[in-house]
Predict the 3D structure of the following.
Amino acid sequence: MARFDVYKNPGKHAGTTPYLIDVQSDLLDGLDSRMVVPLRNVEDFPNVQLPTRLTPVLTISGQKFLLETPKMGAVPKRVLKSPVTSLADMRVQIMDALDFLFQGY
């Protein structure tokens, strides 16, 4: 498992939240859980003004998804199967969102 890998959401909300992105440090790979942030279809927020620093829009295969940083949580490693892609190239935006959530800047 690698930080910023994206996995299909195996949960009951996969229709509106099709992906989870792993944001946990690779140094903690020995734990049996991973911290993930849901990725929601942007289409589900047509008229909502969300803070872009906290909830940046990320692209997977040409489709736009909202990083729902405030809904981050831990999941058992076993539910994260093969990664579908990596968003390591979006590391700065993802880390800015996490810093904003935890530090306020």
Observations:
- The chain has a mean pLDDT of 94.
- The longest strand covers residues 33-41.
- The longest helix spans residues 91-103.
